Amino acid sequence: MEISMKTTLSLLFAAALSLSSMPAHATKLDLATMSCKQFLESGDDTIKMVLTWMDGWYKGDEDNAIIDTDVFVDNAKKFGTYCGTNPNVSIVTAADEVLGK
């Protein structure tokens, strides 16, 4: 199943704008092995959780209690574009390329 760029961006944009509660069931996600394709197909809750984690991880110790929604959405769009064109790349590699660490 191939996901179009428009669908990818729509999913990521919607996820970024609707930071709601996390799923009630316990899950372990190995982000080092998750591909962009798996991420994009993982569902709304997982997408939101991973995008939120990336936002904090790549900020480091800077502004650790602040979520700038404009920056968050912009980064989510960049990440979605990169993953949409590189489905076999791990999301950690994609995040490094887009957000730099």
Protein architecture, described:
This protein is mostly helical. The protein has one domain (28-99). It has helices at 5-17, 36-40, 44-59, 69-85, 91-99. The longest helix is centred in the last third of the chain and has 17 residues, at 69-85. The chain starts with a helix and ends with a helix. The model has no long low-confidence stretch (mean pLDDT 79).
Q: Helix content range of the residues, please? A: 55-70%
CA-based shape: globular
Report, as a whole number of angstroms, the end-to-end distance: 31 Å
Structural class: mainly alpha
- Report the biggest beta sheet as strand number plus sense, adding barrel if it closes: none
Instruction: Give the total of domains.
Output: 1
- Rg is 13 Å
Q: Tell me how many strands there are.
A: 0
Order of helices and strands: HHHHH
Q: What is the overall pLDDT average?
A: 79
Low-confidence regions: none
Keywords: Chaperone, Periplasm, Signal
InterPro entries: HdeA/HdeB_sf, HNS-dep_expression_A/B
Protein name: Acid stress chaperone HdeB
Signal peptide: 1-26
